[in-house]
Amino acid sequence: MEFIGLLKALCEAFGPPGFEDDVRAIIREKITPLANRIEEDAVGNLTAWVDGESDVVVMLDAHTDEVGFMVSHVDDKGFIRFAPLGGWDVRQFPGSRVALRGKDGFVRGAIGFPPPHITKQEERSKAIPAEDLTIDIGVGSKEEAFELGIVAGTPGVLEGPFQVLPENRLLGKAFDDRGGCAAAITVLESLKGKRLPYTLAVNFATSEELGLRGAKVSAFRIAPKVALVLETTTAGDFPGVPPHQSPCALGSGVAITIADKTMVTSPRMLRFLQEIAHERNISHQLKQPLFGGTNAGEIHLSRSGVLTGVLATPSRYIHGPSSIIDLRDLESQIQLALAALEEIPKRLL
């Protein structure tokens, strides 16, 4: 249950791209006793370094941000226009509750939409563009909103409380990629006191949802020879999604990426991860290409190239406030990451 508590704290923390201070604070507290040193760079990447027997660097990466939005305008009556940050499906917005980072804490509200009583039938079946939606925080004027600290540039997220469901399933927001962050912290805890044959850099990257920005900066700084990205990815095993459009499924283990829109995994790395999973009897599946993208897209191109693999936890309804994951898949991700870190010096370095 300690791991569930960590995951809950991370998922419920506020952290849209570029505004992940609360998430980093939780992570920093957890990793400081587990690392030889901690670095935070100018853009917000947080890196835990574990010294080993050589200067060759192996990188483990997870990103701290979640999809969110930013206030773009406040009108005279206090209604708020907003710009999405990250890959949103606009159908998520109408009726959702929001949390905005105000002057003296969080300001709550809802994204309003016309009810069926006053809309035409043909309007009810259409997705409303984000630029046509407004946030209602209960005030009556622009001045009242400003008093709360709600101005252009104020960040926000959709709210979704963390809950434990039956059959090892978990419900909440920001599993992408707070699940990966929790896995990376657990890997560090498992390695505490062990002497590694290489230097390990565990990176908690900023702004993945805005074009892998943090990974580009951190990979150049860290200069790894091999990297593993711990992610959360799209599961399509629910009604309405045909099999050929379902990248992976809940309950089938960690998803190993073959290829996505940002990287084709090196056959050498892909064979390595599959062999380790088979040898250690770790539940796993191959993520169907070519869906999504991860920090691996920038990491594998850094400097003269980095041998990079992606281990992901499947999530239904990803990039929304009510995502669902299977805890056993996340545990498989941790198991395969630890096994890979053990075998990397024997097979890849």
Q: What would you note in describing this structure?
A:
With 349 residues, this protein is of the alpha+beta class. It folds into two domains: 2-66 and 173-347, Aminopeptidase, CATH 3.40.630; 69-158, Elongation Factor Tu (Ef-tu), domain 3. The protein has helices at 2-12, 21-31, 121-124, 142-147, 175-191, 213-222, 267-279, 296-299, 327-347, and strands at residues 37-40, 46-50, 57-63, 68-74, 80-85, 97-102, 105-112, 134-136, 155-158, 163-164, 169-172, 199-205, 226-234, 254-257, 284-287, 307-316, 323-326. Strands 1, 2, 3, 10, 11, 12, 13, 14, 15, 16 and 17 form an eleven-stranded mixed β-sheet that branches. A six-stranded antiparallel β-sheet has the order 5-4-9-6-7-8, with no helix packed on it. A hairpin with a 2-residue loop joins β6 (97-102) and β7. α1 (2-12) packs across α5 (175-191) and α7 (267-279) crosses α9 (327-347). It is globular.
Summarize the structure.
By secondary structure, the protein is an alpha+beta fold. The chain is built from nine helices and 17 strands.
